[in-house]
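Changelog-adjacent note: as of this version, every example in the card shows the full chain rather than a window. The one below runs 385 residues end to end.
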Amino acid sequence: MKARFIPVITVFLLVFGLVNWYIGWNGWGYLSTLFDLENAWPYGIIVGILSFAWLIGRFGQHSASPVRQVAYFLKYIGSYWFAVMEYGLLILPLADLAVWLLTLASVPYKTAVASVGTVAFVLMASILIRGAWNAWTPIVRRYELTIPKQAGAIRKLRIGVASDIHLGTVVGNKHLGRLIGHMEEMEPDLILLPGDVIDDSIDPFIRRNMAATMSKLKAPLGVYAVLGNHEYIGGHIQEYIAQMNAIGIRVLLDENILVQDSFYIVGRKDLAARQSDPEGRLPISELIAGLDKARPLIMMDHQPSDLEQAAVNGIDLSLSGHTHRGQMAPNHLITRRIFELDWGYKLKGSLHAIVSSGFGSWGPPIRLGSRSEIIQIDLTFQPQP
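Full-length structure tokens:
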């Protein structure tokens, strides 16, 4: 470990520990009041395990079995705990303030703690239950768009899009099966996967044979993907590409492909390639140099950070993900400030830009203010007279 990271990691662990201590302290105050508990050690051990479960699981997931299975389980429950941490920090300060105000109004302390604590618990449980439902119950969002170009003999094109699947310890074959089912109902001509197909490690993808499930993604004009930042985080790029090639999904690495002499699919490397790929990534202008721009250009770029250049360079349709729309409100207030378009659709000049909130989830499989979604795009090619 480089010495310069030690202070950063130390501060992170200190803040992380204080946040979890605060949540645990409030939880003990509520439970001990409600049930007259006195011995805090069993409770403290449980909260300690939950607090660091994801970190322990993350470092242990490459171990030999059965340690690996324990690591998977810890990472799974630790993922949910992240949601408890976020909403605990939003709910508990207000709960503590309410208890203080009630005691000032001569309400007995135990009555105040029991009453406010129950409200806080019900609110937290409601958030987690609804958030889990939003994460595991995908919807299909539909867009009907017209591109004023001729695409060979193709007049209409249906594209199925699924970004940010995040296959790994938490999101697995069951949720992937939901994607397969929706795509089969949609019957797209083309399927595009704009990055973060896997989470932070390819190990669960291989060990749980997710490729066998993913191989059921079929479309007459093919299935194409690009890299997201999480493929780079995992660091198994070539192994991932080999897995995808084996099931007939082509990963475009700063490449373009002409489909049926009709339209181009342009696939950019993720922005993370600037630091993680020795070859970096190409600007859009170089990536499409020499292409016949009289034909439609459909581009996948995992992060929606380059819409201006996409519009300037004549891209007709750009598809991105990455933001998850913050995944858990009010995080969307942050993504909204970072990106020109953090979710949904925008017409920028002649560019149709679509950013998906993603099919899977990172960290907790909890979504609030966002949904697990699949995009259906019905394109009409209508050249101007």
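Structural remarks: The longest strand covers residues 139-147.
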